[in-house]
Amino acid sequence: MFLTVLSQPLSKVCGCFSLFSSVTFKGLPDVSHCSQSVTFKGFPDVSHCSQSATFKGLPDVSHCSQSVTFKGLPDVSHCSQSATFKGLPDVSHCSQSATFKGLPDVSHCSQSATFKGLPDVSHCSQSATFKGLPDVSHCSQSATFKGLPDVSHCSQSVTFKGLPDVSHCSQSVTFKGLPDVSHCSQSATFKGLPDVSHCSQSVTFKGFPDVSHCSQSATFKGLPDVSHCSQSATFKGLPDVSHCSQSVTFKGLPDVSHCSQSATFKGLPDVSHCSQSVTFKGFPDVSHCSQSATFKGLPDVSHCSQSATFKGLPDVSHCSQSVTFKGLPDVSHCSQSATFKGLPDVSHCSQSVTFKGLPDVSHCSQSATFKGLPDVSHCSQSVTFKGFPDVSHCSQSVTFKGLPDVSHCSQSVTFKVSLEAQQWKYFFPVNESIKPA
Q: Between 20 and 30 A from 143 (CA), which of 261, 350, 392, 415?
């Protein structure tokens, strides 16, 4: 059997909108046990409703044995009041693929839009594809996503080809839980997390995908670009990849280079127990931040069984305010080599820079190489290093290929770790006012 739900009968309802304030859909067809495919070709058009529209139960297709296609959920793009979706289709037990080709377009809503439960595809035996989550890019009010799809138990791959574009939202945007892919048996790819680059208000990410137990690789090809945010941006927990059995690649952490307000990173990925290599190809660029930038915990790679490579820690060379690093990576128990190819360039900072704990490599069983500690040669204010790496128990060599050049500092430089000439070979610039402790 092939069931088609036509749009004509429902569309006739729309002509009555002028007679009523609100429109309520209390139960669209239950096709939960259909043995064949189901196609919904056009849900009610409520795009010009003057009052609220409520959908209290879209079709339950949770037990369909064949594919389900939704070719156009309600267009509420011009609603003058709120639109509430209290339960999009539950496809959690579909034995075949589920495709959503266009979730509601609320891009021009004058009021708030709330999505209280996007499809649960947590137990899908086949792939699930989301080709376009709601476009709220021009919402004049807040947009809340209270639970993006839970794909934590998918046996096949999951692809998100475009999370909401909130780049021009005039109000705040909150993501309270991006997809949980912590138990995916296959790869998970995020091809574009929200673009909030031009948000005029604050943006909060309260929980990035948990990929801590992924048996395959996880790739993040572009975390949010908040480079032009006029207000603060807070990341309260980037992905936990601490138990990944395969490699993890971060190809671009948030670009906050032009933020006019502060940027806080409260917990970059924990890769402390990764069994494979971890690569960070570009930490946040805060080089032009007009306010402070705080990094409260860079990745802990202390127990990595393979190599860890940091190809470019933050460039804060032109920050007009202070920059604080409260804990660079702890690689103290790495069984393989750890390479830092460029610690922050703070050479032109107009304010103070504090390093409260460079990497502890005290128990490294292999070599540790620092190819360029911060260049503070032109700092106009003081620079304090409160703890250079503790290499007291290293079983192999430790090489510092360039300690800070402070030859042109206009203010004081303090090194709070004693350097024993007979044990370590350090080169300092010729400057009588600067001596190792």
A: 261
Residue 201 belongs to a domain: no
How far apart CA 92 and CA 67 sit, in angstroms, is: 12
How far apart (Å, rounded) are the C-alpha atoms in residues 429 and 409? 11
When divided into structural domains, the chain yields a total of 1
Q: Which of 320, 381, 385 is nearest to 359 (CA)?
A: 385
What pLDDT is attached to residue 11? 35
- Mean per-residue pLDDT pooled into runs of 10, the chain (437 residues): 36 34 52 56 53 53 55 51 50 51 49 49 51 48 49 50 50 51 52 53 54 55 54 56 58 55 56 59 55 56 60 56 57 61 57 58 63 58 58 62 56 49 32 36
What's the domain range around 128?
1-166
Q: With contact defined as beta carbons under 8 Å apart, do 383 and 350 qualify?
A: no
Find the radius of gyration of the CA atoms of the chain: 26
Q: Check: CB of residue 57 under 8 Å from CB of residue 28.
A: yes
Rounded CA-CA distance 426/55 in Å is 70
Q: How far apart are CA 424 and CA 422, in angstroms?
A: 6
Residue 124 within a domain = yes
The two structure tokens encoding residue 111: 């009021």
pLDDT at 273: 57
Please report whether residue 236 resides in a domain: no
183 contact partners, CB below 8 Å, separation of at least 6 = 152, 153, 213, 214
Report yes or no on whether pTM surpasses 0.85.
no
Cα(415)–Cα(400) distance, rounded to whole angstroms?
Answer: 15
Distances (CA, A) of 388 to 52, 148, 354, 374, 431: 61, 43, 12, 12, 21
13, burial (CB in 10 Å: exposed 0-12, middle 13-18, buried 19+): middle
Size of the chain, expressed as the number of residues it contains: 437
113 occurs within a structural domain? yes
Strands (E), 53-197: 53-55, 68-70, 83-85, 98-100, 113-115, 128-130, 143-145, 158-160, 173-175, 188-190
